[in-house]
């Protein structure tokens, strides 16, 4: 990897265990700032767990033990005394299945802002509108801001969840297979959106879709059985991978 | 052919359907029986020389029955007593049960201790209600009430103020009696909240307390109302345990006052359940009061129905508000 890129996240010898199962082994990598990094690999390879370890989401799901360090702007997020809520405000996450709150469109986006203590209606209106615009959803929902978010289509819901996540101005946005439950048109919209978002945020995306990784990402990491096999610029990875396993996986010979 | 009939499960379906039919028949029969015996009670007999609509007279008789004091042969004190004890119970049991359920489901670490507590809560639901009555008398009335008297009403001793059966102890005993129902139903509501809603909330930088307060509790509020409905239905008809703690067959005055808090918490009350028991069995002229017993039973059923209806409407509103559409439709 070229050295002039600054690393937003730096993973140092990270190992992760769920109860009695080893999920990640000795992962080290640098996630560059204002780029899109894609994680690819067969099911169960640990790519989602790696993603979730960037904002300590794993510990909400399982009994976990973590070794090694993950540095966000140089500071270890696994250190004692780190405010996990504040960490998650800085490192947002969007899951595979859209999970809008059963409130109105407006209240979904305002949710995180209210958590931050923003109460003035005018300020909220402004921030909600700008988040929805950034998520390319504003034109579709401007007339039904106060209708239930549950009635939106799957693709709209996912963009709403992204709007909700970026409303609180995170520095990193983690996307865990954000388009895998969506139709091709919605997928395309999400991909275009990611391209816009990388101007402001550092994006990390987990995907099962090779073409998607090739289309949207600047860097790609290939994981297999809890280990980082190869991590390089996407172009290089898809044209001239240095590992045999990567080539096999990308060309569909295994996985 | 017979073998095939069995293999298709036809007898099984008939057995199931039969059980449903029998249950329905019994409940419908019970309602019909009570209606039959109570609706005619106040129908005026033919009086020569009396003019005016019979229906009007009939309604007037019902009204006198519902609004009259005990001395006038009415059941108003019993209706009021039942409503007050149940509402006060609801006020006491809801926060306690909900908080306990939140702790058990959201905070307590899974393990043998938690399992033991859960078993204890479930067993509490199986304790005979009369035991709660005895406990209420010993703990609430004598111990708690006695202590309150010693601390705040020393002047009027030895005449007890709170150290004697009364409304507050009735409601507390009922609250204890229905606590397991509320805890279990609320916990089920908490367990039904989709995990990804919680995760979505955490993902926005919410602390655990904020997740519970902003997502979990609003989402579980319909379940809490269901819990309350069950508690109310259970409590409104209790008689036996309450005889120990403050329900009597007739009261000299209503437990109301014109000043804040408008309730005489230490006063004894009477209830519909008690009235039914007393006028049905204890009365010296049982055959004369029998029709009135059915009328009281009808009033009690109607009252519980109305309380449940109010709770149902509340739940529907909460469901709409928090978007659990599947529950509404």
From TrEMBL, chain A:
Listed GO biological process terms: phosphate ion transmembrane transport
Encoding gene, per UniProt annotation: pstB
Domain ABC transporter: 9-250
Keywords, comma-separated and alphabetical: ATP-binding, Nucleotide-binding, Phosphate transport, Transport
Record's protein name: Phosphate ABC transporter ATP-binding protein
Pfam families: ABC_tran
Top-level division of the source organism's lineage: Bacteria
UniProt key word Nucleotide-binding: yes
CDD domains: ABC_PstB_phosphate_transporter
GO MF term list: ATP binding; ATP hydrolysis activity; phosphate transmembrane transporter activity
GO cellular component assignments: membrane
Transport keyword on record: yes
